[in-house]
């Protein structure tokens, strides 16, 4: 029998809520669900814009503050460092206090982070502000996914997750050409002041539209999976076989794709392919528009794939090699690999995005916040590590010549890491699906 999230849940996780009383599943009416989705989507759009804007601003920041490749990698990675630092307490708070209270508290920190970035006058100040901003927006995906785990049926959870990621891609699209157009009028400091105001407005929308977290209920109408049982800690979640199976795909392959999308695709187009900064912004626009399309298609087809018996791990096993092939071609072609190749790499890497909601559904709903946040920590720790490692490798490979060739060599090392990550996932998947000897 093939291993699915449902079988993974019954195989390794206890079905007990966090606290003395069982959790009651509260399905939202369709109209309310749409309003809640849109409120969360606005906040996630802005968080993705903030996340990706460093790729567009990298030429300006490099010139104004004399930043090296390693500095850029650390600056962009600082966002993800802040993001990763909050994930474990975030999961506990989401399960206890609910999405609305948690995201409003966190976004207050994001507003302060954007303001601090606008006021910074040194690399240290910029880095501290990016870490603060990453901490502040770290609930923008986990809060809705935790809510969807209780508010929506499983097939719609997959759709909502994909379309939330599509909204994030729209934010990354906005971080390219629109930001390039606004820079002459606002400057990068004015841009971050504007982001602070927009995040504050999104907080108002969330306060008005997102329902409060319902207290646990012992209603007999609750789902069977919500039956009372012992609470689960992060150690148990990390040891869950389904969670462990997905770790390398999240850390190396999917986290590395986000590292490319949010930083290194821009420098590649300028240093290796020879684009102008404006041309690189246009290329990033095309990449992120392609990602938006990919996540929209996943949202359309995910419910049908679930009904047809295609589990997330099966789709990853068959689909992820496409991204390895595209990345290998990019390294081999070097200066001939423009934005279209990076768009193809990012689109084929979206198979890895299926792991996150699958992990959430593989563990009991009462620890959805913990499970999703723990896996999100894996992803964004990977983003931080990959962004910084690529920059450090590019600085270290001086024997390859100019900056473009060093960056190409760093991408070759990244390709090897991606192959290793996929092989480790594939071996774990095969072990999980191996039939017992008769």
Question: How would you describe what is shown here?
Answer:
The chain has 438 residues and is mostly helical. The longest helix is centred in the first third of the chain and has 36 residues. Helix 3 packs antiparallel against helix 16, helix 4 runs antiparallel to helix 6 and helix 4 runs antiparallel to helix 8. It contains 17 helices and no strands.
Q: State the secondary-structure class.
A: mainly alpha
Provide the β-strand percentage band.
under 5%
Distance between the termini: 14 Å
Helical coverage, percent range = over 70%
Q: Which regions have little confidence, pLDDT < 50, spanning 5+ residues?
A: 1-25, 217-229
The sequence of SSEs as H and E is HHHHHHHHHHHHHHHHH
- State the major sheet: none
The best one-word shape is globular
Mean pLDDT over the residues:
85
> Treating each run of at least 4 consecutive H or I residues as one helix, how many helices?
17
Radius of gyration: 21 Å
How many β-strand stretches?
0
Helix and strand arrangement:
Blueprint lengths: L4 H8 L17 H36 L3 H29 L1 H21 L3 H14 L5 H10 L2 H21 L2 H33 L24 H6 L1 H5 L1 H26 L4 H31 L4 H22 L5 H11 L5 H8 L5 H29 L6 H31 L5
Helix pairs in contact: 1-15, 2-3, 2-7, 2-8, 2-11, 3-4, 3-5, 3-11, 3-16, 4-5, 4-6, 4-8, 6-16, 7-12, 11-12, 11-14, 11-16, 11-17, 12-14, 13-14, 13-17, 15-16, 16-17
């Amino acid at each position: 029998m093939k291993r699915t999230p449902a079988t993974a849940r019954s195989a390794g996780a206890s079905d007990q809520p966090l606290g003395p009383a069982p959790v009651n599943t509260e399905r939202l009416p369709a109209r309310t669900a749409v309003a809640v989705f849109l409120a969360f989507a606005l906040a996630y759009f802005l968080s993705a814009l903030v996340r990706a804007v460093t790729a567009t601003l990298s030429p300006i920041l490099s010139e104004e503050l004399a930043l090296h490749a390693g500095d850029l990698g650390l600056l962009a990675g600082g966002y993800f460092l802040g993001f990763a630092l909050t994930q474990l307490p975030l999961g506990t708070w989401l399960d206890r206090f609910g999405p609305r209270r948690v995201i409003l508290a966190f976004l207050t920190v994001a507003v302060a982070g954007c303001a601090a970035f606008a006021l910074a006058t040194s690399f240290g100040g910029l880095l501290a502000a990016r870490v603060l901003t990453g901490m502040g927006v770290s609930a923008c995906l986990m809060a809705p996914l935790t809510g969807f785990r209780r508010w929506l049926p499983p097939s719609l959870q997959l759709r909502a997750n994909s379309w939330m990621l599509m909204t994030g891609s729209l934010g990354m699209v906005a971080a390219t050409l629109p930001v390039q157009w606004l820079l002459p009028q606002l400057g990068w400091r004015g841009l971050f002041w504007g982001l602070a105001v927009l995040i504050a407005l999104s907080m108002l929308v969330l306060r008005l539209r997102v329902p409060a977290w319902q207290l646990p209920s012992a209603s007999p109408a609750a789902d069977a999976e919500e039956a009372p049982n012992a609470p689960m800690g992060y150690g148990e979640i990390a040891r869950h076989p389904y969670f462990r199976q997905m770790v390398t795909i999240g850390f190396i392959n999917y986290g590395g794709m986000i590292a490319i999308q949010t930083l290194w695709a821009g420098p590649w187009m300028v240093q290796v392919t020879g684009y102008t900064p404006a041309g690189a912004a246009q290329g990033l626009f095309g990449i992120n528009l392609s990602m938006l399309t990919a996540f929209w298609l996943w949202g359309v087809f995910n419910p049908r794939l679930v009904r047809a018996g295609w589990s997330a791990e099966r789709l990853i096993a068959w689909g992820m090699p496409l991204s390895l092939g595209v990345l290998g071609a990019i390294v081999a072609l070097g200066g001939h690999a423009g934005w279209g190749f990076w768009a193809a790499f990012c689109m084929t890497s979206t198979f890895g995005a299926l792991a996150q909601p699958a992990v959430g559904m593989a563990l009991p709903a009462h620890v959805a916040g913990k499970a999703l946040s723990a896996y999100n920590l894996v992803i964004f720790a990977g983003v931080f590590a990959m962004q910084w490692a690529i920059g450090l490798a590019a600085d270290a490979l001086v024997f390859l010549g100019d900056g473009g060739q060093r960056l190409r060599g760093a991408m070759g090392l990244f390709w090897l890491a991606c192959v290793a990550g996929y092989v480790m996932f594939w071996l774990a998947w095969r072990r999980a699906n191996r039939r017992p000897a008769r």
